[in-house]
Structures are given as C-alpha cells and as structure tokens.
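Thread: quick sanity check before group meeting

JM: Hey all, I'm pulling together slides for Thursday and realized we never actually wrote out the predicted structure for the chain we discussed last week. Dropping the sequence here so it's in one place. If anyone has concerns about the input, flag it before I start.
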Amino acid sequence: MKINFLVAAVATMVAVPVFAQSTPVIDKREAKQEARIEQGTASGQLTPRETARLDNGQAHVQNMEANAKADGVVTPRERAKIAHAQNVQSRHIYRQKHDAQTQ
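JM (edit): ok, ran it. Output follows.
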C-alpha cells in the first residue's frame, strides 16, 4: 500500500513540471509574430533597422516566457504579463510594417 502511494506521488511530481512548462498558446502566437516579421522583411515593408528592433522585442517576450517557466509553473499572472507583452509586440509589428519606410 505504501509503495503504491509512493509510486503515485513520484509520478505526480515528475508529471506536474512537464505539464506546467507547456505553453502552446504562447508558442503558437510567438511563431506567428516571427512569421509576420520575416514576411515584412522579405516584402521590403521592414527596413533592417526595424527588423532588428522587432527581433529584440521578440527576444524580450521569449525571455519573459523562459523566466516564467524556470520554476516549473507558469502562473496565470505570468501568462497575463506575457500576453500583454505579445500584444505590445504585435502592435509594434503592425505599425512598422505599415509606416512609410521601405527597404
């Protein structure tokens, strides 16, 4: 009886951090935003300087996600902060792609 409980407890401890580190919604949105930047660079809508700034913004969001995952649990508050940062980054991408500057 004690062995079954111990095995179940260990299995739960191993499974929880793996589950907690999964952020498919954040990852999917991140990939879409990176694709938007690449498309803007390829079409000439983004200058090299704009592309570099947007890439730095994407790196900031990735760092936020990595820091949130560091302890094994991404809390709802951390998810909200990451979502806000992604919203800001999305606005930056839109504005840079639709300004008058071209490559």
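AS: nice. The chain has a mean pLDDT of 87. The radius of gyration is 19 Å.
JM: adding both to the slides.
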